Amino acid sequence: MWGGVSGLIAEIKCCEKAGATTAAVVMAYVCIDTMAFLALPTGHDKQGRTEFIAWVDKYLRGHPEQPYQYRGLDVYGARCALLHAFGSEADYHQKYPEAKKFGYHDGGKHAYDQAQDEHLVIIGTVSFINDVVRAVGAFAEDCKADADLRARVESRLPAVLATFPVNLM
Q1: What is the C-alpha to C-alpha distance for residues 120 and 129, in angstroms, rounded to an integer?
Q2: What's the number of CA atoms in the CB half-sphere (13 Å) around residue 24?
Q3: Residue 78 in contact with residue 102, Cβ under 8 Å?
Q4: 113 three-state secondary structure
Q5: Which of 63, 72, 99, 108 could be 77's S-S partner, Cβ–Cβ 3.0 to 4.6 Å?
Q6: 0.90 exceeded by the pTM?
Q7: How many helices and strands (H and E) does the chain possess?
Q8: Three-state DSSP class for 39?
């Protein structure tokens, strides 16, 4: 039943392994959007900024030794910037100037120095991708423990893209 989610995680890891770092990060943001959709409250059928931010604030955690810890506000702004402008800044940052902008490097340790620029975080993509995968795992654990959440998620899983090998068609 979780095949679409598993496939999404596999695609992220495949992009990362192939050296397609930006594609892996884009897919990680798509993954968070998907998880926010799956976690929607009963009676809701569309996720948006509020749901994305709430999911990030609940599930996305960096290693305690990272100099930057994720905030939904920042991650949403970074998502908008990358997906809509292929950059580090979006209209969102004008509307929410407290949101940090993300730059990226293909290592593990984030770089954040408030004294240098309090509004810029350089995200280590290896850590970010790992943290998103771990967040999905934590969400899945919550689904196991919470019957209401599990029911909502399972009712929405058929809407998640699933791909099949050609020989099954």
Answers
A1: 19
A2: 25
A3: yes
A4: coil
A5: 99
A6: yes
A7: 7, 2
A8: coil
